[in-house]
Design goal:
The chain is α+β, with helices and mostly antiparallel strands. Helices cover about 25% and strands about 25% of the residues. About 5% of the residues have low confidence.
Length: about 250
Amino acid sequence: MDRMLFIAMSGAKEMMRAQAVNTNNLANASTNGFKADFEISQSRPVYGPGYADRVYATTSGTSANSTGVDFSAGSLISTGRDLDVAINGRGWIAVQAADGGEAYTRSGDLQIDNLGRLTTATGQVVLGNSGPITVPDHAKLKIAADGTITVQPLGQPVNTLAIVDRIKLVDPSLQQLHKGTDGLMYLTGKKPAPADAGVTLVSGTLESSNVKTISSMVRMIELARQYESYIKLMKTAKTNDEASAQMLTMR
């Protein structure tokens, strides 16, 4: 009975974990630039203490594994806002992570905070050629396709333009990227990705989340039913165990 109970328990645990991943995806269905997570489980043999006489074959036991990321692009939505940008095709916008390092995002709903820094909607400072980008007071702002930020200074004629900085755009190998708990992408290893002139932006546009809402809702129902099946299996194991114990007490 313990083998049956372990298999049911490990399966139920994985279903709970998959439900958490799927729920997080649904919660971010309207988050600009969000990349959906995949839930991944892998079957493995499990050995008990002592002699290796209890092996749960790879077709039975399950164990947790790391989640994957769906890197497919979301839909482009035109907003007309000067600070809204979207990556055109492959690539990422470099931002400053909480630990001072470099992270990457495709969320292009940019803002200027009270210190004049260019940030994402969630507060990460956008990086340029020489570090964090600071935008001076201006009457008009434009972000070019190559990430160059140009402003018309306050009190200056319309034809007086000043280049502030250039947003750092990168295109590292997707195999080298992993998602952090903050939703940002990080490069495996300590060396930041170099700027890539081949990555371009579309101004006045945002990239939506790539979460497929209908598919995620259907997946939620599937996971709930699978979880219920494992719970029923655990109850069956308990019933069988009680019946076996009762038979042993009979004389």
